[in-house]
Amino acid sequence: MTSAPLKKLNDGTQIPQLGLGVFQLDNDAAHRATLAAFEAGYRHVDTAAIYRNEVGVGRAIAESGLSRDEIFVTTKLWNKAQGRENARVGISRSLEKLGLDSVDLYLIHWPCPAAGRYAETWEQMIDFRSEGLTRSIGVSNFLPEHLDTIVDETGIAPSVNQIELHPTFQPDDLINHCSDLGVVVECWSPLGQAADLEHPEILAIAETTGATAAQVIIRWHLNRGFVVIPKSANPERIRSNFAALDVTLSSGQMETIDGLNAGNRVGADPATVEP
Length: 275
Ligand code: A2P
Description:
Helices cover 40% and strands 15% of the residues. The chain is α/β, with parallel strands linked by helices. It is globular, with a radius of gyration of 18 Å. It binds adenosine-2'-5'-diphosphate (A2P).
């Protein structure tokens, strides 16, 4: 069975470059989707405390028949749980719901800059890693100034920054800043919540290559070196998205997609999201 390429993180561990996102799925749907994904060959699932589906994901992990070290599990600390004491409760609850002793990657979900607690929370994340509660630590939705603050204050860069990124929303300055700091970029809403699937240039490349529009976009993310976690509740689309691993894009097709940035944000702006 095909497996996703592994991407090296700055702490020496590795992350499968293609995973399943389970945003907006309830426990039962997340359970079904995660099992379908494992069957299709995925070994990486990305959830969050705020998705309220860690129990469903955990059930799928337990029932999968896969050993723990074959699966890469990410979850995220919710905004209200930032701060030293709250964060410890946050990770304990997530581990309990997932039925795991540790996750592979734990992320601060949003910086919430006005609350002013993300740097203190990052110090706590470093402790969680030392204690073995998570193998790697990272952040999500951090802008360059937030990354600089935590690196300046602790000397430790996150392994991953999970950000909104898809063909019509390519935050180049942030991508370059992550690269300068050795932070792997992971893309949420990699299909632009399906909107980018309708883009005429994507449809044209899909037509030429015989791949689906989703496969074209996922292959573009992989070729760019990003970690990508397309969400789907549908087993057929989950399988088909994984088959993006077998798609090839020419350098010209890559350049065409590189040129589609239009600032089309589909999610919230990290500068203004607060608890
Ligand atoms: P569904 O869950 O019904 O498959 P993103 O990951 O960018 O947030 O996009 C998720 C959205 O894209 C969901 O609405 C999902 O719907 C849809 N989607 C995921 N994969 C495909 C696909 N291969 N073809 C069409 N729509 C897809």
